[in-house]
Design a protein that fits this description.
Layout: E1 6-10, H1 15-27, E2 32-37, E3 54-57, H2 63-73, E4 77-80, H3 87-92, H4 94-119, E5 124-128, H5 155-174, E6 177-183, E7 186-187, H6 196-208, E8 215-218, E9 224-229, H7 230-243, E10 249-252, E11 256-259, H8 260-269, E12 277-280, H9 298-304, H10 312-328
Parallel strand pairs: 1-2, 1-4, 2-3, 4-5, 5-6, 6-10, 7-9, 8-12
Antiparallel strand pairs: 9-11
Helix pairs in contact: 1-7, 2-4, 4-5, 6-8, 6-10
């Protein structure tokens, strides 16, 4: 593809967006980075790089603000990472989840379509779908390929099916150069505290700091996940837009598979406190859950040569240290 001079990252203040900006700054310092943010978005995750990027205020549910941003910036690549990404919240707020993820994506694609017709603007657009679209797979369907059926088990998963299929439809109908990813579980420092590994690490750090009793509250520990590090994930995203084909979809994920309970055991072994007990909190159990996620990433590996490099033990340590630093700064 042509040289990338400028990228726009939606959701740059979030977990993955901030790591992606860091990766580009470190490895491709001549690439200009523009971040699309809402006016109320906290900037904690990008405060250390804020003087090296430019921010544009807008909201994906307001198409005019997206049009203004893209008309002014015309990035070569759009990494569309912004989303309501918390599965549990989607059960309580399905419409807000659909508005953010489906309508927001539709607005982005409509704006690009309009600018392509009016001004020949034709960027690569990475649409970040999710492994959640596959839902509860059958045992004979693992490892999961891109051809597996959709069985979304949450409003969040439904929203990602919509986002995924919109991206495909805009490619088929108007040649908008979308490339879709279905990323499996990825984690690391700065992950939101509502997600399992980060939540457990935060609780352990709180216990070590004397701010919580030595009891960890958990949900379903029997779900099987394949973990990868966010820093491997953002490298994969860069390879995606430089080596992969528009209109295609790719599973991306790690190679270390275990139950949530086994993950917690590994994390507890890193704790400075050794008498921590585990207690199931009924409020953490979902109305429906996805309990078997093991990806086949052969298609993406063949296209890019990518493979995960960061060991899960390092991910665990770095995430725990992140929360230790948080409590140390209070």
């Amino acid at each position: 593809m042509n040289r990338i001079n400028k990228v726009l990252i939606t959701g740059i203040t979030g977990f993955v967006g901030s790591h992606l900006a860091e990766y580009i700054l470190e490895n491709y310092p001549k690439v200009e980075i523009v971040g699309l943010i809402r006016w109320r978005a906290p900037k904690d995750n990008i405060v250390h790089i804020i003087d090296k990027i430019r921010l544009k205020y807008g909201d994906l549910v307001d198409a005019e603000s997206i049009r203004n941003a893209l008309n002014e910036e015309k990035p070569d690549v759009i990494f569309h990472l912004a989303a309501q990404s918390y599965v549990d919240f989607s059960f309580n707020a399905p419409r807000a989840t659909l508005d953010a993820n489906v309508i927001g994506t539709c607005n982005l694609l409509e704006v690009v379509k309009g600018l392509k017709i009016e001004k020949k603007y034709d960027p690569i657009i990475h649409i970040c779908s999710s492994s959640e679209v596959y839902g509860q797979v059958k045992e004979n369907e693992v490892p999961i390929t891109e051809l597996n059926s959709f069985r979304p088990a949450s409003p969040y998963a439904v929203s990602k099916v919509g986002e995924d299929m919109l991206a495909f439809q805009y490619w088929v109908s108007w040649g908008i150069k979308t490339i879709r990813t279905r990323m499996f579980t990825h984690t690391g420092p700065r992950r939101g505290e509502v997600f399992a590994l980060s939540n457990f690490a935060k609780q352990i750090a709180a216990i070590e700091a004397g701010r919580q009793k030595p009891v960890i509250k958990v949900g379903n520990l029997n779900s099987v996940r394949t973990f990868s590090d966010v820093r491997d994930a953002v490298k994969a995203y860069w390879l995606l837009v430089t080596k992969c084909e528009p209109g295609e979809v790719y599973n991306i994920g790690g190679e270390e598979t275990m139950t949530i309970g086994e993950m917690l055991d590994k994390l507890l072994k890193l704790s400075k406190v050794k008498n921590i007990s585990v207690e199931v909190d009924p409020s953490r159990l979902r109305p429906s859950d996805v309990t078997l996620q093991i990806p086949c990433i052969d298609k993406f590996k063949k296209a890019t040569g990518w493979k995960p490099e960061i060991k899960f033990e390092q991910t665990l340590k770095d995430t725990l240290d992140y929360w230790r630093k948080y409590y140390g700064s209070l």
